[in-house]
Design goal:
With about 475 residues, the chain is of the alpha/beta class. It contains 18 helices and 16 strands. The strands form 4 sheets. Strands 9, 10, 11, 14, 15 and 16 form a 6-stranded parallel sheet that branches. Strands 1, 2, 3, 6 and 7 form a 5-stranded parallel sheet that branches. β12, α15 and β13 form a beta-alpha-beta unit. α8 runs parallel beside α9 and α16 runs parallel beside α17. It is elongated. The N and C termini lie far apart (about 70 Å).
Length: about 475
């Protein structure tokens, strides 16, 4: 491997200096690279971008032949899409005019290693050499300083990430990789991408494996438009991210505390109030599509709600948790694993709560409301004490269980379960799960409650009152 890389470097340096006509000149070129010690701590690779904007990064690996690249660029122009191309250094050195054509069409170029390598077999020095020489080729041919690096497969490794960090770059993987080389048709590629579309997603396609990607791009653009997403460059999506790497994220500082016998849990099942006011709450987790529809419904009626979210779901799509608070609502914990708390031992339960608080805080970039709702609303005295001992302020239950998650029940039954039991101070428990009645029945419930003179408040507003 090292011998192969050495001769590749020689070739690249020869191409850069315009001396590729004689083999003896190639042999005379010695790549002198001072490899720094592995001292700069690497950042975690980017597999998705934390943005609440409906943007998706369209990226391509490699650089195909001129005919294929021309056809692909023409199609992107027709669709008015700008994308990011991760291109290997050797290809740029050999065919800089194709790389220039990519840039002239409004796209961006990033580092795809020198020889389009897989990262697993290589060590830190080899990874640094691959990335350094590629940067040199890109800078000298295109006057660009790459910010991001990706391997041929889109996989990463600690050595690869460390090498990138020394060069002030970050490794990018992907959110959506349809492995277009294995898929035969544009329809198959597009269908795969459609199933994983999400805010901040990174689509990885390859320019050189399957010509069907050109038609697939048209189908992907159609699906994205219908769902309200914009396909754009990686850099544009990164620019819209709400995260700040220099910001210290505050949490509720929950901690494992096995001295819970004397804890004093504050459990709320219903608020005591003389006013006609109720609280609308949502549990669990959902896709971007479902959550967006629910948030739009709440906007239509100018209602704010409290969302108890599952940490495991938030960890997979943190930007959606942030979207909830950006839309004016509040977020609290529904645990990390969504297990029944009465069936967990005290240590398992407390560790779950601590992890959920950390995950949700990281997603929001601020601490969530320090409330907790147990899965299925099930609670007993010992588990309540265990929960309170971690530092949770309030355990929030509900007096109205909509059962909107139960598809064996009719929408009318869900509707009546809520509206027939609403009283002043009621806490209504609903869900944002994809497979539920919520989207269809929620407007009817809100309209009935508003018509009867009630106002909606959040949990924190009621606690404050």
């Amino acid at each position: 491997m090292k011998r192969y890389i050495f001769w590749s470097l020689c070739l690249v340096l020869v191409i850069i200096t315009g001396c590729s006509n004689k083999a003896e000149e190639a042999e005379a070129v010695k790549p002198e690279i001072e490899i720094p010690p592995n001292e700069i701590e690497s950042e975690e690779s980017i597999s998705k971008i934390m943005t609440t904007d409906k943007k998706i990064a369209l990226t391509f690996n490699g650089m195909a032949d001129e005919e294929t690249m021309t056809s692909l660029l023409e199609r992107l122009n027709q669709l008015q899409i700008h994308a990011t191309f991760f291109v290997q250094g050797v290809k740029i050195a050999e065919e800089p005019e194709i790389a220039e054509m990519i840039l002239e069409n409004g796209h961006t170029i990033q580092n795809n290693t020198l020889n389009h390598i897989l990262v697993e077999p290589i060590d830190y020095e080899e990874a640094y050499t691959e990335l350094y020489l590629t940067n040199k080729v890109i800078q000298e041919n295109l006057d660009i300083t790459p910010q991001f690096a990706r391997s041929r497969s889109g996989d990463t490794s600690p050595f690869f990430e460390s090498a990138a960090a020394q060069l002030d770059m970050q490794v990018v993987t992907n959110t959506i990789n349809p492995r277009d080389g294995d898929m035969q048709s544009a329809e198959e590629i597009a269908e795969y991408v459609r199933g994983f579309m999400n805010r901040g997603a990174i689509i990885q396609l390859n320019t050189y494996l399957n010509p069907e990607i050109i038609d697939a791009v048209s189908l992907i653009k159609k699906d994205a438009e219908e769902a309200g997403y914009e396909l754009t460059t990686l850099e544009a999506v990164v620019e819209s991210a709400y995260t700040n790497p220099n910001k210290e994220i505050e949490t509720n500082k929950l901690a494992v505390n096995q001295d819970y016998d004397q804890a004093s849990p504050q459990v709320i099942e219903k608020f005591q109030t003389d006013e006609q006011e109720v609280v609308l709450t949502f549990d669990d987790w959902a896709s971007d599509e479902t959550l967006s529809i629910i948030l739009d419904i709440l906007d239509d009626y100018q209602i704010k709600a409290t969302f108890f979210v599952i940490g495991k779901g938030v960890e997979a799509n943190p930007q959606l948790a942030r979207l909830i608070i950006d839309r004016g609502h509040e977020v609290a914990s529904h645990s990390y694993n969504h297990l029944v708390v009465t069936e967990m031992n005290s240590l398992e339960l407390q560790e779950d709560l601590v992890k959920a608080d950390q995950v949700i805080s990281n997603a929001l970039q601020e601490k969530p409301k320090n409330y907790f709702r147990p899965a299925q609303g099930l609670l007993e005295d010992s588990s309540a004490n265990t929960i309170a001992a971690t530092g949770i302020d309030y355990i929030v239950l509900y007096d109205i269980a909509s059962l909107d998650w139960d598809l064996n029940r009719s929408e009318d039954e869900i509707y009546k379960r809520v509206v027939d039991n609403v009283e002043s101070g009621s806490i209504i428990g609903m869900h944002i799960s994809d497979e539920s009645h919520t989207i269809r029945v929620l407007p009817r419930i809100i309209e009935n409650i508003l018509m009867r003179g009630y106002t909606f408040k959040t949990v924190s507003e009621m606690i404050g009152d």
